[in-house]
Amino acid sequence: MITRLTFDQISTAVHDAYEACKDIKGGQNAHYIPYLANVNSDLFGISLCLPDGRLISVGDTDYRFGIESVSKVHTAILALEQHGAQAILDDIGADATGLPFNSIFAILLENDRPSTPLVNAGAIAACSLVKPHGDADGKWKAIFDNMTALLGSKPQLIDELYHSESATNFDNRSITWLLQEYGRMYDDPEMSLDLYTRQCSLGVTAEQLAISAATIADDGVNPLTKKRVFGAALTSKVVALMSAVGFYEHSGDWLYATGLPAKTGVGGAVIGVMPGLFGVCAFAPPLDDAGNSVKAQAALKHLMKSLNLNVFSNTHYYVISNCNIFCDDCLINCYILSDKGLFHNDRVTHYTAFFNHYTRSDNRVINFTVDFTAFADDTSFNYGFPGYVLRTDDITFGIDLPELLI
Ligand code: DON
């Protein structure tokens, strides 16, 4: 089944999710990191970014908080980009552990690899893989620059959080040295642990994280800066990693309930990626026992349910943005045409559009039909056709272009 989503539908669903969840109580701030324990527990925001860069934000979406484990996704992308998908599978893995994010037991069980870059062991190993090898400053620059490119703007290190984490990360030190013992650290262990701790201490907003999630949804092109951050072929790998272990020991329950590939962090953020459709971030500090934000989970569940979206369903949704008709030469230009595929952005190859009833300045109604083709490896396409001059100015259609049918 193919269905169209409008901007208004998505916007309403985001606002409804906020209203429905804003008074939810329960959970508590991460208490094992002193800085996080003191963040205002009432903060709550949802931000959703479309592939054309439009943002729908409600609540505390410009509050800067600790990115924490959500950063594992960003650095996994960097390691994938630098080393390739096969090397990451060989050196780290892509398995769900079924255990908490900082489990040492998981490393003992699967001692040939750290399991996945989205749990602590694999994330520290991913930092050890980041190039340039042996160069702490160069590696940090690569991590920071990659994060900036994904977010579309700079994160800011929260010094207090960094010191708070560094002083209390005893389990991560054990993990690091156990990996070293198993030959699964690929650079200096202390340096790699410090890079991991620093990346977790980066301050970001829900809006920034939504943009980075939308960059994944848009096959590696940042929808705001329009810059390519990673190769399109990596999207399915990143989304697969998020699906398998984004909620740690609750990943299966989460996917079953929502159909949204997502990743959590103990700072209170959850990011979700619907390939081809949008990236989203919900943020609220109080966490459940597994370290996942109570309100953010509820909000994203609400959103997916009200839009009737599910990455596993056979319903294909499409979103069309920024269609212009340049009238003197009758060029139809659609900036982005995106369609949901399972774990990847499956741009559809052929559409027929029926544009009806555009009124010229002399009030004559024109009907016409045009076929056009979208190319799978391109985010924009043009189709020129001979015929009428419709208007002298550009007509810009929003996402809810009503006459566009498939
Ligand atoms: O490694 C840690 O303990 C933290 N810096 C990050 C943990 C985290 O966010 C787990 N995710 N829910």
Q: How are the secondary structure elements laid out?
A:
Elements: E1 2-4, H1 7-21, H2 34-37, E2 45-49, E3 55-59, E4 65-66, H3 71-83, H4 85-91, H5 105-109, H6 120-129, H7 136-151, E5 156-157, H8 159-168, H9 170-181, H10 189-200, E6 202-204, H11 206-217, H12 235-245, H13 251-258, E7 262-264, E8 269-274, E9 278-283, H14 294-306, E10 316-326, E11 331-339, E12 350-359, E13 365-373, E14 381-384, E15 395-397
Parallel strand pairs: 1-10
Antiparallel strand pairs: 2-3, 2-9, 4-6, 5-6, 7-8, 8-9, 10-11, 10-15, 11-14, 12-13
Reported for the largest beta sheet, the result is: 5 strands, mixed
Taking pLDDT < 50 over at least 5 consecutive residues as the criterion, the unreliable ranges are 320-339, 347-406
**Treating each run of at least 4 consecutive H or I residues as one helix, how many helices?**
14
- Main structural class: alpha+beta
Helix content: 25-40%
Q: Radius of gyration from the CA trace?
A: 22 Å
Got a strand count? 15
